[in-house]
């Protein structure tokens, strides 16, 4: 007999077919493998055919992921050989892989004197290198990437066409003969830029050596990575970092650092096992870890560093010359997207950098570094970008009592009848356009769900254009046109405004419900959950600003069962930076007396300001009243300070939920926490600990009153201490977003998930 | 002494109010002839406008509601390149207003009229029961002869230069500061602008459009212009004059200085060739006058930050809804 398989998942452009080919050869099977728009099609005949799937699963290439396998038994055709059939029609590749850090094999080759790619700064293979950032159009072929202009040399072509080579169909493969070139740009005394010519034979390494020298000298350089440029300087050189801060007008917000290797990170930070796992994972994200050695100017005042390892050949070559950590922060002007090409860099950041290490492989789609953080034995994603995104999930549908539901099956569909596919195809194409901050977009079509990389805050025209460009890119790359657009209810979100201008059917989903939906989607949850959604601000159904919410939510609807008592957001949006008046206005009179803005705050509290239940602002107020901050200099500052001063030895807390009474109130009154912070102003440890304990206990106490599993979502849960304290104290089953951003980066996911489940 | 309902009754008290207060302060033959309507002489094109004024508090740093009522109407006329000449004035007074306060308002109006070279030629007074209005509402209408025709919000062309006559946001900030009882030294910009306009006209500046940036502030003017002329306007944040006090208070109140009302500040778009000359003239009246940007052809009103990022300047929103999560 002949067995036909249809396999879906991440199976294209990741070396899947060569693996199939190798296994078929080993098992002496005949037949073929083919990429089609429906997935990878395999037919096999031969004695060992029953061993095939098992062997394949055990030998998957590192970037591949099987989501579904469909199987059909057919009549024998008596194939005489096993071959890879080149796709005839253009394949609409639906699995564009994220960019992946250089793999161990390529690293070994790069540092092997006898290898023809010895010290080659653009070495890559089917298991590593650029993908999303170089693709212009589908299908994912070299001609549709920014590698098109580099014509493969004979040797590379040979590897590229040999199914047994690890560069078989590695689209960006190249070598010294045929690949991109590094170049160094240098700012002269008079401010004009000059391309540095190094004519002798050792050009490659000389350029990197030169940049390393400049970093050692304390200069600020820009280095082109996968999805954009980094601004780089010696992280251990206080003056250099200070100068970078001055030039970039970024006074205090922490910088991320890249380290030569894990051992070097350990010299400066305390790592948990989970931290190490995340840092060394193939995605090489920025990981927020515990600071041990204080490097001035990097992350002053807080107890954490954002650290990551080299992920491109160029980074590795650079660290051949230096062993200290470097600041590596996205090259952009405040609130604008990351810069992709050196002309733009010179135009916009010409005053910031002294040298540029550029190359002529164009970045087509910008992509920032990802940011994650370990929480107990899990982790949370704060920015889903390089290495993780585009994030693809397979969604399967079935009819269940006439209602749409979703199955998210991994690797277990074995079926012969295709009747369900007609249902799939009638499904709407859905576009979720996300929030205004940490914006991402999500798509759903057929059985696919795609989350874009982090786009950013839509505060500037540049970032709004980047948002629109990303929508266009995704429409092109996935051959997608939306039938419906799902957006937030906030009338002033740029994403909402964009959606309302399109001539499409629109649905608006409440912000915090979208956070809850994002969690349900990640874990494929059905039924009712008790969702605690704590974040900065979001537009509520009643036109006020929500942010400290407890919902009973399911895939279709939600009910707001509790919320933090609303208060006036004195100063509107500016209260985020300046919480002083808002905080003091809420204090009891006798406690307020010690604050010099007491009278002003009381007067302002009579004004007309929006009402909010924002948990983020409660954190700000506590940090202000305790004396930890005067102003919130950057997003997340107050939360990180409260975490820094948290002392697990202090068990004291203030009960907000009052579960011992005859039932909890709908409104959770937290003002006592503010009075406590003000009364104990100066005792940071006490205030922080009591505050975190109280919020954690409040969550635990409320959840005990409901016979439901719990969802935690929203940006406030980036607070690792709060999240851990809840996990430690609760006996409930608790879900929170892990691979999907727990902050507003997940809003588009919740929007699209609602569409999948309800339209 | 307080104003009672009797002052509006048409009897002896009304007469006293009219003769001893209004005629005395606004004294001119047309008004004093006390006919049913004022008869005035006009030549050629005439600008004609009306506006009603309410403000709380009625006295503020740098002015009061009377000054506002004269400046507002005179400025609307001046913005059309016309010299304010004849004004009518209606008072709606809440019973209980101190006579002394009314007198001070009227005196301020008279002083302001003199600066503008305009006259009140007709008027009306009503006194209404407590609670019907907030202390005092004033309506003024005015007419003036157009000295320089062709000034219009529809006239902007790519390359024209936009100038603001002084630092922005003062009036709105002062009023809010009073409401919240915040002590401040800054004064409202409230002022009749005819002198500035006349000087620009006399200097032969090619004025395309002019508008006083009252309600809705600079943001509203720029958006209205872009809309009316089908152009874009790009403003440089660095060049935008705003006093530190205004910036500081705006942060407390949650306002954008660009959205706040001014009562003696105007925006003028001139041909590029005259831009520096116009700026120089305006600087003589107020040293903070500044070229702030230029007209573009992309139909957007844009603010460029010192480090190059751009934001849309939108029409001021009714609510201060934060978008920060
Ligand atoms: Fe949110
Ligand atoms: Mg007016
Ligand atoms: Zn590799
Ligand atoms: Zn080659």
From TrEMBL, chain A:
Residues 205-387 form the YrdC-like domain. The keyword Ligase applies. PANTHER family: CARBAMOYLTRANSFERASE (PTHR42959), CARBAMOYLTRANSFERASE HYPF (PTHR42959:SF1). It catalyses: C-terminal L-cysteinyl-[HypE protein] + carbamoyl phosphate + ATP + H2O = C-terminal S-carboxamide-L-cysteinyl-[HypE protein] + AMP + phosphate + diphosphate + H(+); an acyl phosphate + H2O = a carboxylate + phosphate + H(+). Belongs to the carbamoyltransferase HypF family. The active site is at residues 17, 35. GO terms for molecular function: acylphosphatase activity; carboxyl- or carbamoyltransferase activity; double-stranded RNA binding; ligase activity; zinc ion binding. It is an enzyme of class 6 (ligase). The gene is hypF. Its EC number is 6.2.-.-. InterPro entries: Acylphosphatase-like_dom, Acylphosphatase-like_dom_sf, Acylphosphatase_CS, Carbamoyltrans_HypF-like, Carbamoyltransferase_HypF, DHBP_synth_RibB-like_a/b_dom, HypF_C, HypF_C_2. It comes from the Bacteria. One of its GO terms (biological process) is protein maturation. Pathway: Protein modification; [NiFe] hydrogenase maturation. Keywords: Hydrolase, Ligase, Metal-binding, Zinc, Zinc-finger. Residues 2-86 form the Acylphosphatase-like domain. This is Carbamoyltransferase. Pfam families: Acylphosphatase, HypF_C, HypF_C_2, Sua5_yciO_yrdC, zf-HYPF.
TrEMBL record, chain B:
This is Hydrogenase expression/formation protein HypE. CDD domains: HypE (cd02197). PANTHER family: CARBAMOYL DEHYDRATASE HYPE, HYDROGENASE ISOENZYMES FORMATION PROTEIN HYPE. Residues 157-303 form the PurM-like C-terminal domain. Belongs to the HypE family. GO terms for biological process: protein maturation. Residues 35-146 form the PurM-like N-terminal domain. It holds the Pfam family AIRS. Coiled coil: none annotated. It comes from Nautilia profundicola (strain ATCC BAA-1463 / DSM 18972 / AmH).
């Amino acid at each position: 007999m002949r067995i036909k398989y249809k396999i879906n998942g991440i199976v294209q452009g990741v070396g899947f077919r060569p693996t199939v080919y190798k296994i078929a050869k080993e098992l002496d099977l005949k037949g073929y493998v083919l990429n089609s728009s429906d997935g990878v099609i395999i037919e096999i005949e031969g004695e060992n055919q029953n061993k095939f799937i098992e062997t394949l699963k055990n030998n998957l290439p590192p970037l591949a992921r099987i989501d579904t396998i469909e199987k059909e038994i057919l009549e024998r055709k008596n194939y005489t050989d096993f071959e890879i059939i080149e796709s005839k029609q253009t394949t609409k590749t639906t699995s564009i892989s994220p960019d992946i850090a250089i793999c161990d094999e390529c690293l070994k080759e790069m540092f092997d004197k006898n290898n023809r790619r010895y010290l080659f700064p653009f070495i890559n293979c089917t298991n590593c290198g650029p993908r999303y950032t170089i693709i212009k159009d589908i299908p994912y072929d070299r001609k549709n990437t920014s590698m098109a202009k580099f014509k493969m040399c004979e040797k590379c072509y040979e590897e590229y066409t040999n199914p047994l080579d690890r560069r078989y169909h590695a689209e960006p493969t190249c070598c010294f003969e045929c690949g991109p070139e590094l170049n160094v740009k240098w700012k002269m005394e008079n401010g004009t830029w000059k391309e540095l010519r190094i004519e002798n034979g050792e050009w490659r390494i000389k350029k990197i050596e030169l940049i390393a020298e400049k970093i050692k000298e304390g200069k600020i350089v820009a280095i082109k990575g996968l999805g954009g440029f980094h601004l780089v300087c010696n992280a251990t050189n206080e003056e250099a970092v200070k100068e970078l801060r001055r030039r970039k007008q970024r006074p205090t917000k922490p910088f991320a650092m890249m380290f030569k290797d894990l051992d070097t990170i350990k010299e400066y930070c305390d790592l948990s096992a989970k931290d190490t796992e995340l840092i060394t994972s193939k995605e090489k994200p920025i990981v927020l870890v515990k600071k041990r050695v204080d490097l001035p100017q990097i992350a002053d005042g807080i107890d954490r560093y954002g650290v990551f390892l080299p992920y491109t050949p160029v980074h590795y070559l650079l660290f051949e010359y230096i062993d200290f950590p470097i600041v590596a922060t996205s090259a952009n002007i405040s609130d604008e997207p990351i810069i992709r090409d050196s002309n733009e860099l010179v135009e916009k950041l010409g005053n910031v950098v002294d040298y540029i290490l550029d190359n002529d492989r164009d970045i087509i789609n910008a992509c920032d570094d990802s940011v994650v953080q370990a929480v107990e034995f899990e982790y949370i994603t704060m920015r889903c970008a390089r290495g993780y995104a585009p994030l693809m999930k397979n969604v399967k549908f079935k009819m269940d009592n006439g209602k749409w539901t979703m199955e998210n099956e991994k690797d277990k569909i074995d079926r012969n009848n295709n009747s369900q596919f007609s249902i799939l195809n009638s499904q709407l194409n859905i576009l979720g356009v996300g929030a205004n901050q940490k914006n991402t977009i999500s798509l759903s079509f057929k059985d696919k769900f795609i989350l874009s990389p982090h786009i950013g805050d839509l505060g500037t025209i540049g970032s709004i254009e980047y948002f629109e460009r990303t929508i266009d890119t995704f429409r092109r790359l996935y051959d997608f046109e939306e039938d419906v657009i799902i957006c937030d209810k906030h009338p002033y979100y740029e994403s909402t405004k964009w959606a309302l201008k399109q001539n499409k059917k629109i649905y608006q989903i409440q912000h915090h419900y979208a956070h809850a939906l994002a969690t349900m989607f990640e874990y494929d949850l059905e039924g009712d959950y008790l969702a605690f959604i704590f974040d900065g601000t979001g537009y509520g159904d009643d036109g006020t600003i929500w942010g400290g919410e407890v919902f009973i939510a399911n895939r279709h609807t939600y009910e707001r069962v509790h919320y933090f008592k609303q208060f006036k957001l004195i100063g509107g949006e500016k209260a985020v930076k300046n919480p002083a008046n808002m905080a003091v206005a809420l204090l009891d009179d006798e406690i307020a007396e010690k604050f010099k803005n007491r009278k002003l705050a009381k007067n302002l509290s009579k004004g007309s300001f929006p009402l909010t239940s924002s948990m983020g602002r409660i954190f700000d107020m506590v940090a202000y009243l305790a004396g930890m901050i005067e102003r919130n200099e950057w997003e997340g500052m107050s939360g990180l300070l409260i975490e820094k001063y948290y002392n697990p030895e202090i068990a004291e807390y203030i009960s907000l939920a009052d579960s011992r009474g005859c039932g909890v109130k709908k409104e959770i009154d937290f003002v006592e926490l503010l009075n406590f912070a003000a009364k104990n102003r100066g005792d940071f440890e006490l205030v922080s600990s009591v505050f975190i304990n109280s919020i954690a206990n409040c969550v635990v106490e409320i959840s005990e009153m409901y016979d439901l599993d719990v969802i935690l979502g929203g940006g406030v849960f980036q607070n690792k201490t709060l999240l851990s304290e809840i996990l430690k104290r609760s006996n409930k089953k608790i879900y929170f977003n892990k691979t999907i951003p727990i902050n507003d980066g997940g809003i588009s996911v919740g929007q699209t998930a609602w569409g999948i489940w309800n339209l | 002494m307080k104003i009672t309902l009797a002052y509006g009754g048409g009897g002896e008290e009304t007469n006293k109010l009219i003769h001893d207060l209004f005629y005395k302060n606004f004294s001119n033959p047309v008004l004093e002839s006390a006919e049913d309507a004022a008869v005035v002489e006009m030549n050629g094109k005439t600008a004609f406008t009306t506006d009603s004024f309410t403000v709380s508090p009625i006295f503020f740093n740098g002015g009061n509601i009377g000054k506002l009522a004269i400046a507002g109407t005179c400025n609307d006329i001046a913005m059309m390149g016309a010299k304010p000449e004849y004004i009518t004035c209606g008072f709606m007074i809440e019973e209980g207003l101190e006579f002394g306060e009314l007198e001070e308002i009227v005196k301020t109006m008279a002083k302001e009229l003199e600066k503008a070279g305009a006259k009140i030629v007709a008027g009306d007074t009503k006194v209404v029961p407590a609670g019907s209005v907030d202390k005092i509402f004033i309506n003024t209408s005015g007419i003036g002869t157009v000295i320089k025709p062709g000034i219009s919000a529809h006239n902007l062309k790519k390359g024209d230069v936009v100038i603001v006559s002084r630092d922005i946001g003062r009036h709105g900030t002062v009023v809010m500061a009073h409401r919240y009882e915040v002590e401040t030294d800054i004064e409202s910009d409230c002022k009749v602008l005819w002198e500035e306009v006349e000087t620009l006209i006399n200097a032969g500046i090619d004025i395309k459009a002019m508008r006083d940036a009252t309600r809705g502030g600079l943001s509203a003017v720029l958006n209205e212009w872009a809309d009316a002329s089908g152009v874009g306007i790009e403003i440089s944040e660095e060049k935008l004059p705003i006093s530190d006090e205004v910036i500081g208070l705006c942060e407390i109140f949650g306002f954008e200085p660009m959205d706040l009302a001014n009562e003696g500040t105007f925006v003028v778009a001139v041909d590029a060739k005259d831009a520096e000359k116009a700026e120089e003239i305006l600087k003589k009246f107020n040293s903070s006058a500044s070229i702030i940007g230029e007209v573009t052809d992309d139909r957007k009103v844009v603010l460029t930050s010192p480090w190059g990022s751009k934001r849309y300047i939108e029409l001021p929103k009714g609510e201060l809804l934060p978008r920060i999560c």
